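JOB MANIFEST
job_type = single_chain_structure
chain_count = 1
residues = 121
[input]
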Amino acid sequence: MFDWNGFLDLAERLAQGDDEASHRTAISRAYYFAFHRARLFVLSRGVALPRTGEAHDVVWEVLACAGKGLRGAAAMGLGLRKMRRKSDYDREFLGIGKGKAQDAVKLARAIVRLLGLEAGL
């Protein structure tokens, strides 16, 4: 079984790189680390998720409708998702760099903390 923590480890390494491709990939992997951890959290609460790209919307919506701390995790997740989309699809990404990639890693860690999953890191 795949350990999603590997994505965070990879994102941390790539965030230290000196090239835009590394920074973009770090943001993407940080998002997918946070998404999959949040997805497993939602599934553990008995929520059925589609096996399509719609699962991204559902995961963050479920968290947004939950308690105060989980709403914060959802807001951060949506922000990180927006960064990931820019990294993966936009030719121009103003402000991309080591700092933005490191911010994405910090956001991913914060999401997992808010979900009470940091012990699994």
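[summary]
The radius of gyration is 14 Å.
Residues 5-120 form a domain with the Four Helix Bundle (Hemerythrin (Met), subunit A) fold (CATH 1.20.120.330).
exit_status = 0
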